[in-house]
């Protein structure tokens, strides 16, 4: 069986959360599928790489941010027209450095998320995240 669209691509996704609950979203740069859509930062997990190590590598490459600690939060599979992905979400409240736009992407700290359009796989997570962030 070939690994075309059948087996999902593992993707590490980081939710950087400030003490006030704000989270960082980035905008996909031109030239990528869904360019202009907003998402949490992250990227593909390489062969023989742990999800957490992939996340640390991606956030250094994309934002110049060093993750000190992150907890697994949830996993979501989503089939896009261009790819079948398995997203592994981690929440980090502990990192070093201020995010920088190393790939020319826009990014924004969001309390209640009001950037559009959001990547389809991200939309349900925002509601779950709000429950987590604003739990009584």
UniProtKB/TrEMBL annotation:
It comes from the Bacteria. Its EC number is 3.6.1.55. Gene3D superfamilies: Nucleoside Triphosphate Pyrophosphohydrolase. The keyword Magnesium applies. InterPro entries: MutT-like, Nudix_hydrolase, NUDIX_hydrolase-like_dom_sf, NUDIX_hydrolase_CS, NUDIX_hydrolase_dom. GO terms for biological process: DNA repair; DNA replication. Belongs to the Nudix hydrolase family. This is 8-oxo-dGTP diphosphatase.
């Amino acid at each position: 069986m070939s690994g075309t669209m059948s087996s999902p691509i593992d993707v590490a996704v980081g939710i950087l959360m400030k003490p006030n609950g704000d989270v960082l979203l980035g905008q996909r740069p031109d030239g990528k599928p869904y360019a202009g859509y907003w998402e949490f930062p992250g990227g593909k997990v390489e062969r023989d790489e742990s999800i957490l190590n992939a996340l640390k590598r991606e956030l250094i490459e994309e934002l110049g941010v060093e993750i000190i600690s992150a907890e697994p939060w949830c996993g979501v599979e989503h089939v896009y027209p261009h790819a079948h992905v398995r997203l592994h979400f981690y929440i980090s409240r502990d990192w070093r450095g201020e995010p920088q736009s190393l790939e020319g992407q826009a990014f924004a700290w969001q309390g209640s998320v009001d950037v559009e359009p959001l990547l389809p796989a991200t939309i349900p997570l925002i509601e779950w995240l709000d429950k987590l962030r604003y739990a009584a």
